[in-house]
Structure formats: structure tokens, C-alpha cells
Amino acid sequence: MRKIYIHTDLEGVSGIVRDDMIEPGGPDHRYCIERLMADTNAAIDGAFLGGADHVTVLDSHMGGGNFDVSLLDGRAELDRKLNGKWWGMMDGSYHGTFFIGAHGMAGTLNGFLDHTQDSVGIYNYVVNGRRMGELAQWAMVSAHYGVPLIMMSGDVAAVCEATQFFPGVEAAAVKAGVSRNRAVALDLSEAEGLIRRAAKRAVEKAERPKAFTPILPMEVVIEFTRADHCDRHCQKPGVERVDARSIRFVSDSYQRFIV
Q: Around Cβ 9, how many Cβ atoms within 10 Å?
């Protein structure tokens, strides 16, 4: 049985080309939600076309609340995170995971809305000496269960990042950043087609890629933009302050990658 778990974000969704569009309550926010559902549904459809028997979907941008469930493909199961974890129902029964709507890590040139978790507070996020972003963070969550990241969609910068971290990943570039706050989008139907085909290819591959598994225990260093952002985390258990803007901790689990 091939089960697929789809994790979603908003910044890398097709048709979203300005930073102000994703603001909740703004004039374009409804459009963004509709595009999120369209990209997600394209990935769901592609997964089933590729031979998936079951698809679970997680609304993860800003902790959730972005889906219009009435627009969700009825074949998919919505992860309602009933177990209290933000990765919800993810477990080792899944064949692979998708990341739909991905963006580049903080500091990515021409990465549309590039950031790593906190676009204001975090400057660098480093695991075992390697800078990483949210793509790698999600891949580590799924790696805890032995599940590889096999497909993603987002802007060109996010696709480049994914191919560097996850050999063999199927990717769909739905737009290209021209600065941090502006992007040029593909035709929407073309973008959905790219997502659908990449999802189909990812599921129908005979061999599954390996999960993303940094060496454990792993060293995590977070460099903040300012000392006061750093201050808030320094007293947490196991956290060492490196300098005015940086902390360090060591984790023996892929599920502890943030503080």
C-alpha cells in the first residue's frame, strides 16, 4: 500500500507573486487560499494517478487555518493534528511525503519570501555545520519515521534548494522570484500540470529515495537577527548561548530541531 503525506505552506504556491498578498484579511488573501487548494489538489490527483492508495494532507502555514476544506479533493484525508503534534498523523506507514508551496531558506538570493520559520527573528539555521531551511526541517520530521521527501513544489529558489538536499526528488517550479518580495508566475494551469506530473512520477518510481538523515546526535545552531530575539531562548533546557545573537543545542532526535 502506497500512502502519501502532503505537507503544505503558502509562500511557494502558484500565482502568489507579491509579499502583501498572503496577509490574512487582505484583499488578495482569499485568492491565495484558492491557489493553495488548487496546488494541493493537483498534488493529490498526481499521487493517485501515480498509484497512491491513500493521501493525507496537512495545512501547515502559520500553524494551520489556511485551508478551505470545501475545496479539498474529497479523496484525501485531512490531518486535524488530533495528537497535539504539529506534524499530526505522520508515521512510518507512509511511502513518501510531499512539500507543496515551499520557499527558500533565509538568505536565499531571489528566493520569494525566503525565511526559516521566523522571517523577522532568524538569520541562519544550521545543522551539523550546514545551513538549512524549512524543506530540510520537514524532511527531518518525516525521517524520524523513515519516510523520505519525494516531491515538492515552490519557486525556482526552493526547487534548487530541494535538489541539493534530496537527490532524486521530483520538483515543480511554479514561479521565479525576482526579489524577496516579488515573483513572476507561470500560467496557473501550467503550474498545476507541473505539480500533478511531478507528484505522479514521485509515487510511481520503483525505488524510493532514502530519507534525509543528518548524523545524530546533531548540533543545531540558530543565529538570530538581534540579541533580544536570542535572549528569549537562552534559558531553555540544554541551550547554550554562543554569542550575542546565537544559540546552540545538541539533539538526539529529528523531532527536536527547534527550541
A: 24
Contact yes or no for 114/140 (Cβ under 8 A):
no
Task: Give the bridge partners for 117, in sequence order.
Answer: none
φ, ψ dihedrals at 153, nearest 5°: -135, 155
Contacts (Cβ under 8 Å, ≥6 apart) of 236: 259
Count H helices, E strands: the chain?
5, 12
Low-confidence ranges of the chain (pLDDT < 70): 82-84
Contact 58, 6 (CB under 8 A): yes
In 3D space, the residue among 37, 14, 230 whose CA is nearest the CA of residue 118 turns out to be 230
The Cα–Cα gap between 163 and 198 comes to 13
Q: What is the pLDDT of residues 81-132, one digit of tens each?
A: 766 677 788 999 999 999 999 999 999 999 999 999 999 999 999 999 999 9
Identify the pLDDT of residue 206: 83
HEC-encoded secondary structure of 179-220: CCCEEEECCHHHHHHHHHHHHHHHHHCCCCCCCCCCCCCEEE
**pLDDT at residue 84, as a whole number:** 61
Which three three-digit cell numbers place residue 41?
A: 489538489
Which of 17-36 are b and which e, b meaning 16 or more Cβ less than 10 Å from the residue's Cβ?
Answer: bebebbeeeeebbeebbebb
